[in-house]
Amino acid sequence: MALLLNRQGCQLQPRPRSSHRPRIVLQATKTTSTATSSPIAYDFLKPVTSAGQIKELKEGIAAFYDESSGLWENMWGEHMHHGYYPAGSPPKSNQQAQIDMIEEVLSWAGVTAATKMVDIGCGVGGSSRHISCKFGCSAQGITLSPVQAARANELSGRQGLGESCSFQVADALQQPFPDASFDLVWSMESGEHMPDKRQFVHELARVCAPGGAVIIVTWCHRILGPGEQGLKPEEESLLNRICEAYYLPAWCSVEDYRRLFEAEGLVDIKVADWSNEVAPFWAEVIKSAMTSTGIMGLFKAGWTTIKGALVMPLMAQGFKMGLVKFNLITARKPAAAQQN
To answer: H-type helices in the chain, by residue range?
Structure first.
């Protein structure tokens, strides 16, 4: 298959068409959300930590990715997120599955063009560069990790994208951008780190231009059933063990996100559960970690990364039992005329 070039001259990898479309422990608070409950105040929206604990959480997130990003890039490349493995699809590399994830999310969200995008929790800039090449748009990314930001800028320069893609250390809950700056607001697996989900969604909506799209791809817990006031104790215990290793605060459900989007006045809200489509991912990560290169890399990276690796089977268990969900949420910010 011939290599694809867009108008920027970016080389796009060929993609076959799918046949399918001592640390703080931040314990997840119980939520009272169900698929049919009314939009009242939910426990997960309340402050889950003190100001001091939030500061420690952010420092922990930064240190975790400072330490582990190099190993991930060596093993998996520049995309630091799940791959897309739909049932019945032909065998493919994990790296191709990650590229497919970006493409399938954009397709699902109905995004066919962009001029300015922001990548919230950008990692080393893989999504930003791919989307910049695809649409010929500018891209800015933010991360709490100085190592990631520096590496993202380095890779962009090497790939000839230094002028169109830029990255900086910044807080997703206090973004350094003016209102209405971007027509594509992208968050690929960073929402789970946010200690204040309401403020997170507010900032995404604030920096989105009228008519623009907001996309969140994130880990959630299952939607609570009718009459349930919270997760089961064994479910909370499992999530709390994951939280400790990966520096995660309270989890929420995709329906909680839907209500937050509605509260911000976003429209055309759509959600999806792609847990089945990413099902092989954690087994693939575990397999790569068990290679000689992976084991040596873990010991070189340090205890924080090792602890994260030890928790990987718990993520696989969470998906298998239906507790952990891989959810997508997208919406559009109304055009100026619609807001008046």
So the answer is: 51-76, 94-109, 126-135, 146-158, 197-207, 233-246, 254-263, 281-289, 292-301, 303-320, 336-339
